[in-house]
Amino acid sequence: MAQSSILGRISQLVRANINAILDSAEDPEKMLDQLVRDFTDNIAEAEEATAQTIGNLRLVEDDAREARAASAEWLDKARAASRRADELRGAGNASEADRFDDLARIALRRQVSYESQATTLETQAAAQTELADKLKDGLNKLRVKREELVQKRDELVARAKMAQAQAQVQQTLQSASVMDPTSEIARFEERVRRQEAQVRGREEVAASSLEEQFAALENDEDAAEIDARLAELKTGG
């Protein structure tokens, strides 16, 4: 796994403009689901890369400490050999003194080698530490952004469901408006009014016929009265 590659992907995801991506998506919910999956996968890779980098860092740090310790140890040996050489030379044993000086030189060469190795390892450790810090920082940012995505997705799903419910209510209201029962009631009321008017018309017709009958009866009564009076006149009343 290339740590630089995963670090590049982390940077791209962290800098990604999620709102712009969603605005251009045909289905924002599906896009959010895909983004959550992408972040989840990259978080897993980042965790693995971070763990591997930290593991390598600890190995390099261990090797650097061992090289430093070895360098110090060989420096002590070189000093000890040099002191022994000085003692032997002071005692007049030049050949043995030269041998200890040679040992001191060998020890110093070992000391320089380990010192150089330690310096190289410490430089590597510094670079590994910087990379590990970047990976840990990027990993934390990825986790935060993934949580934001999950919250945004949940919010979007809730809003979509609410919008769908509102659309269904609106559609129901529109259907109810098209099939307005008040229009049927109005037509029924008009029919009842017509029937009531016809009844009133019949009542007026019946009342007119009754008045004519009473008028005829009154005329008959008047004629009888006239005939009675005429008979009375004839009888000399």
Record the SSE blueprint:
Layout: H1 3-15, H2 18-23, H3 28-90, H4 94-178, H5 181-234
Helix pairs in contact: 1-3, 1-4, 3-4
Q: Overview of this structure, please?
A:
This protein is mostly helical and 237 residues long. It has helices spanning 3-15, 18-23, 28-90, 94-178, 181-234. The protein starts with a helix and ends with a helix.
Précis, in short:
By secondary structure, the protein is mainly α.
Residues in helices, as a percent range: over 70%
Separate helix tally = 5
Total individual domains:
2
E-strand count: 0
In CATH, the topology of the largest domain is named: Helix Hairpins
The low-confidence parts are: none
Rg (C-alpha, Å): 58 Å
CATH class identity of the largest domain: Mainly Alpha
What class do helices, strands and sheet pairing give?
A: mainly alpha
Q: From the 3D coordinates, which CATH architecture of the largest domain would you assign?
A: Orthogonal Bundle
Q: What percent of residues are in strands?
A: under 5%
Order of helices and strands: HHHHH
